[in-house]
Specification:
By secondary structure, this protein is α+β, with helices and mostly antiparallel strands. It has 9 helices and 9 strands. The structure holds protoporphyrin IX containing FE. The site of protoporphyrin IX containing FE has 23 residues, from strand 1, strand 2, strand 3 and helix 8.
């Protein structure tokens, strides 16, 4: 992997990186039944030696829209209808059908969500996808394109509709309970992390745009290379403090992982922070224990509501020479200047 990326989790074989994972539904609100036909969120926070990397994906490899500006419309259409707040959790209802009928690019994703993939048997039996095309960057600053795939060791399995309907009445917490029990029993859910890696030249040869999140790259064209595995071996100690307060953010990448020009990805990079500032009560949610990186932060930034650390001194910026925070030597200065010019 070092040929492709300098990212900390891939720096050598056997490297172990702690993660926190949140699976979620899209349409259903908190407390809604688990087995509604819906997309499932598959969000993974890697606490790497070089800061947090969040891979915020879904259990389906494509997405409904190409342009992030349509995301609020998509969510308004799929959520319970505003005049009577019905139906809860279900994506198949009039406002959603109305919206997607005007958005032909949503057809591919519609087929996925209305398929059995929309009613997974267990969170441990779901595939996960980063969806977008990302970039990997190696030590020589050479980059390739990359798509991320999580492949469940238990296989990909769905319920049938009759089971899903019965379970939703008898056991609405079915998926959450199943995940909890598996981990408590030591039957740890496990996924293989696989990558589709390709160059810009290869991308140019495809008959579709790799920067369009409504498309996937068929494995017949580009096989998946396994590069690691993820094992969920510990339940949270406190649901609110951890699962509720964890903040996943597309902008959280580490050196070695970078963005492509996918316009939907560009929208997401900005959107999550914006939401979390209100959901978690201010700009310092990165100091909540579940969100704190294991790598120490030295960016000198401070203040804002609910700040936990008490910083000393007059320097709240970088680079600086007043606080000894930046070794201003000719080589690093030149490298910084080059980088500024490139971007
Ligand atoms: C490839 C397309 C997308 C995927 C795979 C995706 C995935 C996800 C996932 C997994 C979550 C739940 C994260 C969690 O557990 O905290 C989420 C939440 C969210 N997504 Fe997306 N999403 C996509 C597109 C978008 C777009 C286009 C936008 C906006 C421009 C957006 C905005 C949000 C927001 C605001 C939240 C709530 C975040 C929070 O409250 O912390 N998403 N998304």
């Amino acid at each position: 992997m070092v040929d492709y990326t300098k990212a900390a989790p891939f720096k050598e074989a056997g490297e172990i990186t702690p993660v926190f994972v949140r699976f979620s539904t899209v349409a259903g609100e908190r407390g809604s039944k688990d087995t509604a036909r819906d997309v499932r969120g598959f969000a993974v926070k890697f606490y790497t030696d070089e800061g947090n990397w969040d891979l915020v994906g879904n259990n389906m490899p494509v997405f409904f829209i190409q342009d992030a500006i349509k995301f609020p419309d998509l969510v308004h259409a799929v959520k319970p209808e505003p005049h009577n707040q019905m139906p809860q959790a279900a994506s198949a209802h009039d406002t959603f059908w109305d919206f997607v009928s005007h958005m032909p690019e949503s057809t591919r994703m519609l087929v996925w969500v209305m398929s059995d993939r929309g009613i997974p048997r267990s969170y441990s039996m779901m595939e996960g996808f980063g969806v977008h095309t990302f970039r990997l960057v190696n030590k020589a600053s050479k980059s390739v394109f990359c798509k991320f795939h999580w492949n469940p060791k238990a296989g990909t399995h769905s319920l049938v509709w009759d089971e899903a309907v019965k379970i939703s009445g008898a056991y609405p917490d079915f998926h959450r309970c199943d995940l909890w029990d598996r981990i408590e029993a030591g039957v740890y859910p496990e996924w293989e992390l696989g990558l589709q890696i390709f160059t810009e030249e290869q991308a140019d040869q495809f008959s579709f745009d790799v920067l369009d999140a409504t498309k996937l790259i068929p494995q017949e064209l580009l096989p998946i290379t396994p590069v690691g595995r993820m094992v969920l071996n510990r339940n949270p100690d406190n649901f609110f403090a951890e699962t509720e307060q964890v903040a996943f953010c597309m902008a959280h990448v580490v050196p070695g992982i970078d963005f492509s020009n996918d316009p939907l990805l560009a929208g997401r990079i900005h959107s999550y922070v914006d939401t979390q500032i209100s959901r978690l009560g201010g700009p310092n949610f990165h100091e909540l224990p579940i969100n704190v990186p294991v790598a120490q932060v030295h960016n000198n930034q401070r203040d804002g509501m609910h700040r936990q650390a008490i910083h000393r001194g007059r320097v709240s910026y970088e680079p600086n020479s007043l606080a000894g925070g930046y070794q201003l030597d000719a080589a690093s200065h030149a490298a910084r200047a080059r980088k500024t010019i490139q971007t």
